[in-house]
Amino acid sequence: MNNIFAERLKKAMEQKNMKQIDLVKKAAEQGVKLGKSHVSQYLSGKTTPRSEILNFLATTLGVETEWLKGTDVSVDTLKKETNEAGFQMENMKFDYNYNNMKENDREAVEEAQVREFKKSSKLNNVLYDVRGPVVEEAARMENAGTQVLKLNIGNPAPFGFRTPDEVIYDMRQQLTECEGYSPAKGLFSARKAIMQYAQLKKLPNVSIEDIYTGNGVSELINLSMSALLDNGDEILIPSPDYPLWTACATLAGGKAVHYICDEQAEWYPDMDDIRKKITSRTKAIVIINPNNPTGALYPREVLQQIVDIAREHHLIIFSDEIYDRLVMDGAEHISIASMAPDLFCVTFSGLSKSHMIAGFRIGWMILSGNKAVAKDYIEGIKMLSNMRLCSNVPAQSIVQTALGGHQSVESYIVPGGRIYEQREFIYNALTDIPGITAVKPKAAFYMFPKIDTKKFNIVNDEKFALDLLKEKKILLVHGGGFNWHQPDHFRVVYLPRIEVLKEAAGKIRDFLEYYQQEI
């Protein structure tokens, strides 16, 4: 029946003098999810649409749904089509018209005709709303010609942040030497530079064999979770979090148990909440320091409390430190692994943020401390690292250059520097809006403001983000996208220049002067 549908769709489009792009535009106007690739697949007979899309197509093209679907064809035609598709249906008796078949018989024929492939059930509880439904709506708007101001993702390059010239030059010089695979853990030169960086951060008991490069920290988070967690194992993850941690733990079969970070205490982890959530199945605790999405930076005394808890309950510490070189106000970043030589720690960092090369995809993972207690786990890490062969070699080739010598990022994070001044502006501009409060971030380039839900009648933070997008063409990520379970926060990325942030803050202020969420 795919072929019948395809022919009739083509015929109906010709009669209406409509092209594929016309259908896509009509769908966008009516809020229907339909892309040009979908229409192409329908016309080629590769697939048929679900009922919502089918009804939209029939209405738009002015034809009957049953006619378009092809359910009015004779049994002989249907049998011919199914045989052409390679299905064995000789034993089925077609002695009455398809339209007169019982519902169960019709479903059986359709199931034989169109095999539907669904996502794995392992993904049922996996969420990653940093690039979720609101972002998809923004993409539809852009495809329709609408300009959207994006404050949703920490990607420096589109906002005019440039990679240091020396990094680009050195990569060009080495490209011909990067055509083959590297060792699974990474190039010697890259790992040596990372090891020396780990020494400067005072990470204990680290050799070059304890360092793994990856296609960004994201790949290594996934790898480390997959190697550790069995079904039902628990891992403590902050709320709010960077959602990839929760997604990867869930995908690995584990259970992400979220501990609260307290907004009233500079977004520091709530130690009592951590203790309450530890069970016999808890294997590890994750910290994100500096923090995404809050911009918090944990002082030594907070880190010491986490170390004490991990020591008491024999937990692995995973520390995501990708923003460790983006610390402002003269504060110091401390690697928690430097305080826990007797515990097994895994520390993550990379060049995506500090060197403005998110697209190069280069990150690393450092194993430190008491590795004797994690021998088998380390074997699992090695196995998965070998299976992906290696991380991308051209990006590895510039790690040594990037980590050595002058660090250009330092000019951005002091008074007069772009990141520092943009933070100052957005913090003052948003907290000046009635109904918005925020803790001033101390690191990274994010802020996690709180919105007065009673004032604006907000019960669904994703709907708030969607309403703002549709009304003011500004794209933010709602707090729920970071596993924050109240509808009262959103994340702002302050990478754009001040004039752009000024425009965005003005639009948010205008929006909130009249906004009342409709339930």
Number of strands: 15
Query: What does the average pLDDT come to?
Result: 88
Tally of separate domains: 3
Computed structural class = alpha/beta
Cofactor: pyridoxal 5'-phosphate
Enzyme class: transferase
Protein name: alanine transaminase
GO molecular function, one term: pyridoxal phosphate binding
Topology overview:
Layout (H helix, E strand, L loop, with lengths): L1 H14 L4 H10 L6 H9 L6 H11 L3 H5 L5 H10 L18 H11 L19 H11 L5 E2 L14 H10 L13 H13 L10 E4 L1 H13 L5 E6 L3 H9 L3 E8 L5 E2 L1 H6 L5 E7 L11 H14 L2 E5 L23 E7 L12 E7 L5 H13 L5 H4 L2 H5 L14 H14 L4 E2 L8 E2 L2 E2 L1 H4 L4 H12 L1 E2 L1 E2 L11 E4 L4 H17 L5
Parallel strand pairs: 1-13, 3-4, 3-6, 6-7, 7-8
Antiparallel strand pairs: 2-9, 4-5, 8-9, 10-12, 11-15, 14-15
Helix pairs in contact: 11-12, 11-15, 18-21
Protein name: alanine transaminase
Pfam families: Aminotran_1_2, HTH_3
Cofactor: pyridoxal 5'-phosphate
